[in-house]
Fold:
Amino acid sequence: NRGGQVIGIVTALANPSHAAFRVRRVAWHLGRWIRSTDWYPDHQLRIYDKRIARWTGQYVHETVTVQGTTGELRGEIQHFAYRDISDHLETIDRYTTLAARQMNEVGRRAGLLQVAGHPLLAFLRNYIVRGGIREGMAGFIISSMNAYYVFLKFAKLWQLQHVQNEPATKA
Structure:
């Protein structure tokens, strides 16, 4: 009930017992609300005292770091992440480029184990452990796309570390 959620937020802010508050985020994708995989509950820190909080992270998945305790609000934020699979793939391409760059800058390495093993583990975590199987075909597609994200991130990291730019061609 949205009225109860608003009252809960107003009450929390009127007499805050925490420096920040998190709320669950639910994503709409492939024609349904996704309440499984790594996508749910996707807790987001959305209300915080900016005097004692700061954004951390470089390129992707920046977060707010707060000095103090964090509470949780009831309810959910509705997130409309992607228009369709093509939009999802375009986002994956952009984010994996940034993630690989960030991983490279902090000294992460990529070899066969990371490129081949991490995507498989990501799929199994999302589809089996985190319940994507309960979402039917949508859960299978999202779990596969998450695995592809992990594959591409490590493949791009490997490329940064092992492939030289092509030589300039003479005109």
Summary: The chain is about 45% helix and 20% strand.
